[in-house]
Records
---
Amino acid sequence: MYYLFYGLIWLITWLPLPILYILSDFIFLFVYYVVGYRKNVVRNNLKNSFPTKSAKELKKIERKFYRYFCDVFIESLYEMHISKKEMMKRMNFSQLELVLEQYEKGKSCMLMTAHYGNWEWASGLSLFLPSDKPLYGVYKRLTSKHFDDLMCELRMKSTGLNVEKNDLLRKLFQLRKDKQLAMFGMISDQRPPRNSLHYWTTFLNQDTPIITGTEVLSRKFDYPVFYSEITRIKRGYYNCEFIPISLEPSKTSEFEISEKYIRLLEKTIETKPEFWLWTHRRWKFKREDAI
């Protein structure tokens, strides 16, 4: 079944992206009106995140989200055949010079982003970096080896590298030992595991546990931290702006970096909520669940 799926994707994604967007429109109708994929989760998340919005406003955000959700699915698969030239045209990176300045100071960088906009295309940053100072996308291994391999393959199309989160610390030590610099892309809006509910804050009007791994590592290695804010310019075109969170992490207080990140992300989501991944069960845990 997997190989049939892979072959189908391989064939379909040779089509130009504007044509694939027509397919996305049909997928939206099926996912939203027929399957109703995780509608209850999405509606509950939106209602709790925006308690002052009317039912009509929430419904509008919901529909926009599902339309965009299907676009991201198509765009992610389109990476299979996208050229480097087209990726550089569709994915712009602003204030990149602020990040590259850290290389000149002999420091690697942590780039905190989220499941917002097309986070998969953020790997296109590799095309703008020195070949000897690569981008590592930090990810959590999928249960299915086939689909895990597929996602890794797609993410490496722009010459980006992958490192599984459980191997990250070892990679950081190895690079420092070899005196090699790199950037590490961290999707930091996930729900922490039950045994890591260490820091709680108010996020989108809800009591929320925050994953703090990036902060812990950046403080340990004193690697500057940036928020990678992805915004959609128009269909198929994005901008990623690098906003400094901390240039001297070792001097920050505990949870300061995590708090700054979550406030920046919250502002991004409130501006255009339809571009965040609302299907995620982000608020599954309560404070009493902390071990």
Note: Residues 55-78 form the longest helix (24 residues).
---
Amino acid sequence: MRLRVLDFGLVSALRSQAVYHGLAETMTPGSDPVLSLASPETPYVCVGMHQDIDKEVDRAFCNEHGLPVWRRHVGGGAVYLDHNQLFTHFVYPANKAPQRADQLYPMFIEPVVRTYQEMGINANFRPVNDIQVEGRKIGGTGAASIGGATVMVGSFMLDFDTATMAKCLKVPSEKFRDKLRQTLDDYMTTMVKQLGALPDRADLKARFLRHCAETLGVEPVEDQPTDAEWAAIEAAERELSDPDWIDVQHRKMVALGVKISADTHLTEAAHKAPGGLIRTSLVNHEGKIADLLISGDFTCLPPEGVDQLAAALHGTELVHYAIEQAALGAMQELGLELPGISANDIATAVMAAVHPAS
């Protein structure tokens, strides 16, 4: 099978996200799969599809330092990105990719891991979707269904600015921010740290494509975007920069607040599950779920399933077992994949909002 390789090189911050969104929208069952490569010319912050920006990002710092904040159609957490990451986007017609996330991650992470190893970096896949070097993270990945495509995004971590990353995130205090910076330094690594210098991009790319061929059973072929793909990428830029999309989770939260009355209460809580942080905003009316917003840095396939799951829990009694059973039934009926997130995690996150910590 042919793998079209579209190397965009250095592009604008917005385009570095728009390329794979646009390519995915053009996919048909008969399309060749695509690997796109890109790095942003200027830095920015990117948040996961299900995150509330106001809870995760220090917007005042970002505004002051000219860092735009974009929301992707892929789950995961907020991250600071710049030219020191080489983004890898596998965009496959859905019928040519594994149907389950637990098969997607190891399949598309393998050529990245092998490339690192060939270059003398002892990288390994760590479920659910991370790459580690002797216990230190060198990269994460994310999966999504976009248009008619299955998308797997990741990067080669050439270098990373932990100081700026720590300043971009919302934290309860400056003391906590100092601790966050130290934690990032301690538990993340980069190619520069491992090799002592930036790798040559052309050499890195050549090695990576060779391992893609070997592990994925494809023939990488350098190509250029079609006119239709360029048009779709430009359309994706317009969508991703639309304020309504960027602040979609905040608008949902505002909608919840409108429903508050004397016997109805809106509370929030968070629960850390193996698959990521789950945030819940709960409208509690007479001991039942009147409305619910689920957000966080997890992955859900299909992405719209998060809102469908929350809607399915409306009317459920605010008892852990009842919520767990309702969530389990809804996840099965909707065919949701939430890697590292169980029905018990959903119930725990909702119940935490019933009696939020003071």
Note: The mean pLDDT is 94.
---
Amino acid sequence: MPSFETIIGLEVHAQLQTKSKMFCGCSTRFGSAPNTQVCPVCLGLPGALPVVNVKAVEAAVKMGLATGCTVARRSVFARKNYFYPDCPKNYQISQYEHPLCSNGFLHVEGGEKRIGITRVHLEEDAGKLIHLEGDDHSYADMNRVGVPLIEIVSEPDIRSPRQAASYMQKLRTIVRYLEICDGNMEEGSLRCDVNVSLRKKGSDKFGTKTEVKNLNSFKAVEQALEFEIERQARLLGEGRKIQQDTLLWDSVKGESQIMRSKEEAHDYRYFPEPDLLVLDIPESLIQRVDTEIPELPDAKLDRFVSDLGLPKYDAEVLTSSREIAGYFEATAKELGDAKAVSNWVMGEVLRELKDKKIDISQFKILPRQLAALIAEVQSGGINMPTAKDVFRDMAGTGNEAKDIIEKKGLKQISDEGALDAVVVSVLDNYPQEVAKYLAGKDKLLKFLVGQVMKETRGKAHPQKATDLLKEALEKRRGS
């Protein structure tokens, strides 16, 4: 695509972690039996009136402040009119001309790329259609109707599928840090629509855009954009026009399919919601919410690099999750060696969480226990291979490192007298290898060290074993 520039904007929907819905008292619990969490308000029955969920408003304000937005002291709810089987009122209560938050931004790609945020506004979710295999009917589950959402609309500042996925990942990290959304994309609590168009390089005029709806994974965002960019480039290269369509992504076939011709704002016939007053946000609420915002990923990353001396890559990995960052900090505080802890958390800890498909709250090794294990390695009590075995035991049982080491007799042999005898035995048992080493094949030292480790069942201190072997070999060279 040498002659085209890609223009991408994302509309990200995040379900807020409130106990009740946006405009009624129904539960937002996920996974309940279909149509058991509904009432006259969320079903749109005649005479039922909505009441705003204050916790949802506070969550939206928190997101706006965290992304540098201006919070409007007065905002207006609007009716977005459309017919769809899982929208029982035939309209959605959203915000349009007067959103709650606007003109924000965030950075991706290590802070190199700034992406503007047009608006963060409140709205209610629609229901869910269920299609059962072998059944020619569709079933509507209205439990999700009315669940509070924030919609985060970006400026068209994104220039590649990878950049779009990075932006989505950053938003997920922020909403999880703020604890306003669980970010569970598989359950649909975080999903996005992508708008994409192509234009001639050097042009400041936008091309005709298409929209791919309801993408619920970073991989799907990248793949759908790659497919759509290639499709548009091919059509433009053939001299054909792009139709402004709304598309669905088929992850199995790896292609997009036309859902409908894309609507414009006037198609939705927006008008102020007559059953709700203007949303007045007191300054005291904004100030209180501001004090509740924790240290965010970018600030935490900078501190890990500047104060703890971590490489930027380590800091990026550790701050991608608030819980992982907290576990790392607690362990580093216990041990006093941030880099050593970083190596263990990024290696063994994250691997264990991935293999067992658990999060850090379910991890059995406490920060002080991991610190104690690392301290055993640093003091020479055990070597690294043994430490990894002890770690796996701790992860399964929650036992202390010292107890496992004592019970299994894993203490590292550091006594030179004890190791001397093993070194002499190894050199006597491998005369040919000793002769080759003395003749200049230095790489055989690793083999001999390995034999010492084997003889001691991995308990020998590797560095001391190496030093004693070198000393004994030089004596034999001299003799």
Note: Residues 218-237 form the longest helix (20 residues).
